């Protein structure tokens, strides 16, 4: 029987099946190179895309529709978009941020659609992989509680080149920032400079969700576009160029 290495509920094949790639950690010096196991990430992502925990072993009520996990992990990208969960349009298309929120997010980042969907430049891994459904008022429900405990830590371990995490919304901020998250989203985003300085080699930057529902928040907090966005665009461009 062939041996494999288990990680969460995934199973990886022996070394001869893997593609081990040396990638410069800083983008310039090979002496800082890190080993990236491309096959392991592909195999694990395939396991995640077949996940049915929220239907077969849910926390609370089961997902009200057929699961369709949406994620774009990357072994080469330096930027991770840690978003919330797919919406209705993304549930249909299977591609993250193919909606008005995506248009606003790309504007915030100062990137084209081609750059945004280049898997070698951006990893997109939401806190919940499936569209969670809607509440009585028509708003999206929170990300499913099953996803992050089952999958997030192993996925992060398989993306060692990530050195900038954009945490969109309180769920991503809670997981990636822990005690560094402030009591409210506004306080967290407002304190972005201190959070940036306190983060280690993997920098973290908190953002609000780019949904149209937050248009009022943006108007009330003009410092976001005046101070945070220019800094964000500079850091993005530094990692893309």
Automatic annotation (TrEMBL):
InterPro entries: HI_0220.2 (IPR047124), Uracil-DNA_glycosylase-like (IPR005122), Uracil-DNA_glycosylase-like_sf (IPR036895)
CDD domains given in the database record: UDG_like
Domain Uracil-DNA glycosylase-like: 70-233
Record Gene3D superfamilies: Uracil-DNA glycosylase-like domain
Domain of life: Bacteria
Xref: SUPFAM superfamilies: Uracil-DNA glycosylase-like
Pfam families: UDG
Coiled-coil regions listed: none
Protein name as annotated: Uracil-DNA glycosylase family protein
Species in which this protein is naturally found: Mesorhizobium calcicola
